[in-house]
Amino acid sequence: MTETPKHIYEFGPFRLDPLESLLLRDGQPVSLTPKAFDLLVVLVRNSGHLVDKDTLMKEIWPDSFVEEASLTVNMTALRRALGEKPSELQYVETVPRRGYRFVAPVRECGDDATHSATEEPAGEIHVSKGEKDPERWVGSHRSRAIAGSLALLLVLFIGLSLARWRGWFLKKASQPPIESLAVLPLDNLSGDPSQDYFADGVTEELITELSKIGSLRVISRTSVMQFKGLHKPVQEIARDLKVDAIVEGSVIRSGDAVRISVHLIRPTAEQLIWGEAYERDLRDILSLQSDVARSVANQIGVKLMPQEKARLAKVRPVKPEAYEAYLQGLYRWNVAADLTTSQGKKSGDEAIDFFRQAITSDPSYAPAYAWLGQAYYWMHEYQGGPIEDLSKARDAALKALELDDQLAEAHTAVGWVKFQLDWDFNGAEQEFQRAIALDPSSWMSHFSYSWYLENVCRFDEALAEQKRVQELNPLSIAAVWHMAGIYYSMRDYDRSIEQFLTAIRQHPDCPMLYSAIATPYAAKKMYAEALAASKKALEVSKGDPRFEADVLASQALASGKDLDELTLSDKSSSALDRAMAYASLGEKEPALESLEKAYAEHDGGLLGIKCASQFDSLQSEPRFQALLRRINFPQ
């Protein structure tokens, strides 16, 4: 035995000290679970060489039998701690079906501290041969001389086993039930960034499947995608999303062959509840997603209602090329629906094109029609598309329901068309309620229904629905925005401002939020604040001309001019805008005449006039009440 420097390894900005169980990044400690740390040590000691899964399992769990999913869980934790991005292999390379290879250059160096050790060549797996190996995680089998009788060993084994199982059952019994979960973005391990759409699409489809379970709160795609590539500890993610469990995993695709690895984790106890890997042909991927959803439900003890079992068991056949185009469409639609991006129009048009391609490839694939209907509606409502888009949305959504009346997104799209285009209030409400019944965790269905309830002045119900939206989509701008809108309609301007400020703290780079908060500021006659917010919107948008008018209006208010007079002098203002201006000035007759013109133009903005504060002065007017009846507002 000789005194030799202890082994310390450096790679990138990291410094690994196995003896001290310490990983530093730029001199700062990095948090890792014990087994993830053990895994890193084994891989680093064998840098440049493939370490197969069996070897890793034996080295990291030398005295236990664990499933392969445990290795996957710890590998995910390790990648997260190292800051790896799915599309950029920086440190660890996955060798499909075999194991892992540490590919970053590693430099081995000594330290002033010494310890007794037998020098071993770097780059090989170490196996303990001494009485005590301080680097026990590297591969020690803890071989010792047999002492005592076999009888004593047997007694000890039985006693320890009983204690271990008793502890396991007590721990299991003491854990609270899982009532909520989040599916984190599945890692794209193909090494090809162009396959991100596929991994994201499979993630979204898995969320959709799990959302069909009524007793389980499943976080929406919008919120979970904000953690893509961040590799935060699952405990922090669970705390941010307020969930009891996390589903995470990876996707590898080669041609029509797909391998999906998923595992279910209870973050508070760092407990792997369940994990499994699936290898399927692309044609069978829909049945795979249903299998995963049922397995998760079984593992967490959720009791499925008969109708839920039926929906999860129902597998829609689809041609691979149609499914490819469908996932591409979802990928673009999610970009278009992001209020923080300037790519909405371009991405929305691309989404529509891909959904059409999917329908051309497989005219019987109902989800492609459903999302085509959603995309047409969204483009009309948020990108200023023509009124014809609503008719196209209706045609697509009704075709989806003809093929499969169990699609929540199709019922939501039909609800919007009945509301916006047909002014069929009762029909719209029934569609929104049906969508929620089919998919209780669909934030979009709850959001749509809340919007409807706000417009018919059922504010308490609208708030209840919107609170559900925030539970399902806690990091969404739209969720907080609409809550602020409801408070504004209730004339509770302070709470409206509070909600907008919350959204701005979460998304300080969204110009639309600064523009929106100017409205309740102006309602409270806080004109200086409204002007500052409007200028901030223009600044953050880098001079987007859409926000220039807001600045001019706020400047007019701050200087004492009447905004309603400005609206009347603006030749580009719509009939509805002019009606609001006249009503605010107390000029009832021209306000009513302008409303009639807006009605003749079938202006969708009329759906908000029943509760809008600008029309309070007209509520007692018989002509105004007659107009509400003609628009079909519920009495």
List the helices and strands and how they pair.
Elements: E1 2-5, E2 8-11, E3 14-17, E4 22-25, E5 28-29, H1 34-45, E6 50-52, H2 53-60, H3 68-82, E7 92-95, E8 99-102, E9 107-109, E10 114-117, H4 150-174, E11 180-183, E12 187-188, H5 196-210, E13 217-218, H6 221-224, H7 234-241, E14 245-254, E15 257-266, E16 271-281, H8 285-300, H9 306-313, H10 320-336, H11 344-361, H12 366-383, H13 388-403, H14 408-420, H15 425-438, H16 443-455, H17 459-472, H18 477-489, H19 493-506, H20 511-523, H21 527-540, H22 548-558, H23 563-569, H24 575-584, H25 588-600, H26 622-630
Parallel strand pairs: 11-13, 11-14, 12-14
Antiparallel strand pairs: 1-10, 2-3, 2-9, 3-4, 4-5, 6-8, 7-8, 14-15, 15-16
Helix pairs in contact: 1-3, 5-8, 5-10, 10-11, 10-12, 11-12, 12-13, 12-14, 13-14, 14-15, 14-16, 15-16, 16-17, 17-18, 18-19, 19-20, 20-21, 21-22, 23-24, 24-25
